Amino acid sequence: MLLRSLSLSRSRLSTASRDTRRSLVSRSFSSSKEDPPKFDAEMVAVYMKIAEQHTHPKGPWPLMTKAVSEKVGDAPFKMLDIASGMGEPARSIGLALPKGEIIASDVSEDMIVKAEASLKDVPNVTPLLANAEDLSTIDDNSMDIVTCCYGYMFPADKDKALEETFRVLKPGGTLIATTWDRVDMISIAGDIMEAILGHRPPPPPLNPMALSEDGLFESMVVKAGFQNVITEKSTYPFDFGNDHGFQLKCGTLLIKYKIEELGAEEVAEKTFFECVPKYTTTDANGHMILPYNTFQMLTATK
Ligand SMILES: C[S@@+](CC[C@H](N)C(=O)[O-])C[C@H]1O[C@@H](n2cnc3c(N)ncnc32)[C@H](O)[C@@H]1O
């Protein structure tokens, strides 16, 4: 319902001022009956710490920003960022390339509220509530660039999401998307859940590793009509700091609610500190480092 109320008509989306668009988003959210989920300050700090890792020079946000910059040069451009979460990489790209007119979209109302806050100081990026599977508020052939960082793993109909991406891109436009190949946080979470349950649980329905199989995402992109598909891999570290309590919170972030539901905090803590040597190193400052997080960055043209 909220999505419908927020659905700007195509002409409005292309002509409405940034402020008008922002207030449309705000009004719709303030009328929502449900409160967004609440995180205490510590949980927010854990989330922010994990997000901060993606700014590593070999992480996805700098590499995607560089890829867009190489594509557009000094020219003005229109860009849609899909599954922006709290606004990335739209925010990084908007700051680096002020001639870009950028939409930061996400299916989650809660994320769009957070994106609104994080994008306040970036005048060329506008948040939009939109499902990647239905981008009907965006014109055909209207975008020079579509970006998506760690997003295509989640739509129920991934082929539809790629068809929609193809539709909104101009002929000759570029898709730049990152998907996970290896995330040791997920392996740690699997080890902990195995210790709690006595067996390894199946992957969750929203599975960050859903496109990690070699060649799978490329074949889906080609099926959607894209050409000139190029992929590159990058590995970057996660730094969980030197405080044991905070390390535990980072390492169990993905299964926090499951652990609480099962009352399994003690087993989780014991298993975490037993299993981390398999996945981590310690740097000179005593920080716990997960060195091998690996993603694939795919570029393709319409
Ligand atoms: C791992 S986060 C990535 C966020 C951000 N791009 C980043 O790099 O930090 C995945 C995001 O995908 C969004 N998402 C999941 N399914 C979606 C869909 N069908 N359409 C659009 N966004 C979706 C989620 O709400 C979440 O914000």
TrEMBL record:
SUPFAM superfamilies linked: S-adenosyl-L-methionine-dependent methyltransferases (SSF53335)
CDD domains, per database record: AdoMet_MTases
Region (Disordered): 17-36
UniProt cross-references to InterPro entries, sorted A to Z: SAM-dependent_MTases_sf
Gene3D superfamilies, alphabetized: Vaccinia Virus protein VP39
Composition bias type Low complexity, residue spans: 17-31
UniProt feature coiled coil, ranges: none
Domain of life from the UniProt record: Eukaryota
Name of the featured protein: Methyltransferase type 11 domain-containing protein
Organism of origin: Triparma strigata
Lineage, broadest ranks: Eukaryota, Sar, Stramenopiles, Ochrophyta, Bolidophyceae
